[in-house]
Amino acid sequence: MKNSERIKIAIQETDNDLREFGLQKQYNRAIRSETFEEVWLPLLERVTGVCVCRNGCYEFYFNNQRIQFYPKANRLLFTKENRWQSGGLKWIVKTFKINS
Fold first, then answer.
1. Which sequence spans correspond to the domains of the chain?
2. Beta bridge partners of 67
3. Which residues in the chain belong to E strands, given as ranges?
4. H or E segment at 92?
């Protein structure tokens, strides 16, 4: 059973609104991560070398710059500039011209 399925069951069983809000946030992050791993990661691996780092982070190189992608937050970290960018998946798809 996937992590998102376990969280969805926990959401249905909870009766506390605040707890449900926190679980819904976890559920959304789990869906984002699972979608990236199942759909976009194989397509990205065909275009560039991707390695899995700690904490669910994926690392790849673009124009001699190391970039880390965090699918749960949908953010990119450009390590040379120490700059964060939101909308990471959209940037990856546009930059590497990946079609699903």
1. 3-96
2. 60, 78
3. 51-52, 58-62, 65-70, 75-78, 83-86
4. helix 88-96
Please tell me the distance from the alpha carbon of residue 29 to that of residue 21, in angstroms, as a whole number: 13
Distance from C-alpha of 85 to C-alpha of 73, rounded to nearest angstrom: 10
The predicted-structure confidence for 74-85, as pLDDT tens digits, reads as follows 999 999 999 999
pTM of the model as a whole: 0.84
Instruction: Extract the tokens encoding 12.
Output: 């249905």
What Rg value do the Cα atoms of the chain yield, rounded? 15
Instruction: Give the closest residue to 3 by CA, choosing from 41, 51, 37, 40.
Output: 37
The rounded distance, in Å, linking the Cα atoms of 15 and 72 is 26
Distance (Å, whole) CA 71 – CA 76 = 9
Q: Which two tokens stand for residue 40?
A: 């976009």
Phi then psi dihedrals of residue 99, to 5 deg:
-115, 135
The residues pairing with 52 across neighbouring beta strands, listed in sequence order, are 58
